[in-house]
Specification:
Radius of gyration: 27 Å
CATH class of the largest domain: Alpha Beta
Strand content: 15-25%
Largest sheet: 7 strands, mixed
Number of domains: 3
Oligomer: single chain
CATH superfamily of the largest domain: Chloramphenicol acetyltransferase-like domain
Number of helices: 11
Number of strands: 19
Structural class: alpha+beta
């Protein structure tokens, strides 16, 4: 028996985009389990299943637009939700009781109570919930790394690993977690007028991820400057020609190109820390993320295979992805797979800052506004256009000497156009 699960009454909304599909073919789901997330212009809506069964076919994908009555998925064996009414399962414990020692009975009960305690409150797919029950992990105690804090299988595996760490190594604080005392709640209305302003969806999504990265990664920031006088003169020539073809050439295009060359020479910056903590995952592809300022907050589109693209192609892709970010048209695939990220504040200002590493990457490059400065050439001071560089890195994967070498490589490439074109 198969059953179609459709979009229920979602009010006055029509043609609402699907932002996340929460289940996979083969998953066993229960009635009211969340199956997709829809995003209206006012809120993100989580759609529950109207029946229980095994997912046979999923009829929508991320980015599709649906309305009330649209078929989301097809369930097989949907009648299983009524099984408890027909099957006298309540008598099973009576038959099994004589075979179980009385002293052993409380243990499974306590495990079940623990692992099921927060299941109804957490954000996880049915398959992940089933896995958590099987390995006896309390989902309420797991930090989700997926979209909107959704708990993934990898998060449970990390939680399992953490359970094997001796209590003494975790700090032993009575507060639990990182042992950080909470910020006290203050009633600011006692001091003057206040207003609660809802955060944008992007900030709600990025906030927990940034917090997780800051707490888990030992950040260090290395600051330096690159002489881009000659590069900027060439960039302006390219930009003048590019305007006639409908695109622009910015400094970021050159920094992307130079970063790829530097990553090839210092592969550790293009790696990730293995989940076991004892190895680095060396990546032989170069996907460069860049922070794009939008009306709703920062987004990080990704230039895929940047090592295979020239300055013109990179410039056009930067413009296309930036526009899509501003217009709210980026797809999830456009923001996945980055191996290194660049955050540029050059159009705004500043002299340096500490960008937060976008885990599981191990480094991020920050750019602030370039400025003319007197530079000693050995005989006299001459005016040069200097570009500040702020490189934040995960000290577990990269040490200070390597960070300094990477930055020297980068500034050398930006300072000599001939080397950048190699």
């Amino acid at each position: 028996m198969t059953t179609e699960v459709k979009v229920p009454d979602i009010g006055d909304f029509d043609n609402v985009p699907v932002v996340t599909v929460l289940v996979s073919v083969g998953d066993t789901i229960a009635e009211e389990d969340p199956i997709v997330e829809l995003e209206s212009d006012k809120a993100t809506l989580e759609v529950p299943s109207s029946a229980s069964g095994v997912v046979k076919e999923i009829m929508v994908s991320e980015g599709d637009k649906v309305s009330e009555g649209s078929v989301i998925l097809i369930l097989e064996g949907a009648a299983s939700a009524d099984a408890p009414k027909d099957a006298p399962k309540a008598e099973a414990p009576k038959e099994a009781a004589p075979a179980v020692a009385p002293a052993a009975a409380p243990a499974p009960a306590s495990v079940t109570a623990k692992t099921d305690a927060g299941f109804g409150k957490v954000h996880a797919s049915p398959s992940v919930r089933a896995y958590a029950r099987r390995v006896e992990v309390d989902l309420a105690q797991v930090n989700g790394s997926g979209r909107k804090g959704r708990i993934l299988r990898e998060d449970i595996e990390l939680a399992l690993k953490a359970q094997t760490v001796p209590a003494a190594a975790s700090g032993g604080g009575a507060q639990g977690g990182m042992g950080i005392p909470p910020i006290p709640v203050v009633d600011f209305s006692k001091f003057g007028p206040t207003e609660d302003v809802e955060m944008s969806r992007i900030k709600k999504l990025s906030g927990p991820a940034l917090h997780r990265s800051w707490l888990n990664i030992p950040h260090v920031t290395h600051n330096d400057e690159a002489d881009i006088t000659d590069l900027d003169a060439y960039r302006k020539e390219m930009d003048t020609a590019a305007k006639e073809d409908g695109y622009r050439v910015t400094l970021l295009s050159f920094v992307v190109k130079a970063s790829v060359s530097a990553l090839k020479q210092h592969w550790e910056f293009n790696s990730s820390i293995h989940p076991d903590g004892d190895k680095l995952i060396k990546k032989d592809f170069y996907n460069i993320g860049f922070a794009a300022d939008t009306p709703n907050g920062l987004m990080v589109p990704v230039i895929k295979d940047a090592d295979r693209k020239g300055l013109v192609e990179i410039s056009k892709e930067l413009m296309t992805l930036s526009k899509a970010a501003r217009d709210g048209e980026l797809k999830s695939k456009d923001m996945q797979g980055a191996t290194f990220t660049i955050s540029s504040l050059g159009g705004i200002g500043g002299t340096s800052f500490t960008p937060i590493v976008n885990a599981p990457e191990v480094a991020i490059l920050g750019l602030t506004r370039s400025k003319m400065a007197p530079v000693w050439n050995g005989t006299e001071f001459v005016p040069r256009l200097m570009q500040p560089l702020s490189l934040s890195y995960d000290h577990r994967a990269v040490d200070g000497a390597l960070a300094a070498r990477f930055t020297v490589t980068l500034k050398t490439l930006l300072g000599d156009m001939r080397k950048l074109m190699w």
